[in-house]
Amino acid sequence: MDDGHGISRPKREASVSRFNKWLNDDNRVVIEPQLTLHSEKELNGTPGGQINSIYPDERNIQDLNLAAGREMETARKAFGEIHGLPGYQKQIKELLNFNEQPKEIYEELVGEELNESYKLIHTVRNTMDNTIIDKESLIAINFDG
To answer: What is the pTM of this model?
Structure first.
């Protein structure tokens, strides 16, 4: 059964099998059991589905974030008037510890899995100093079977 997010059963099974192998050194193929999906009404934690409707006087994370943003508005505008876009960009780079020095990136094939239903290709990308940039698993599903 499709979950409504476009992740079909074969894709879910292939993904879980791969993670099991990668994280648990477990080579078993995962077969998803037949699942019963509950309705939205059954999954609601409150009669109306929204917790805020039960506690209207409580402040939620959206309220707190909005209040914090409003408190910083004057300082943000003053900073922008003084420093402009270059100042914003510099501040963001400093906050993110962004290094503009280009580094040569290497991609290494670290494994492959071939199954009658799918093929997984596993790679790691890193720099000369072995800083791992990302790990990636590409999946190709055999749609003919």
So the answer is: 0.36
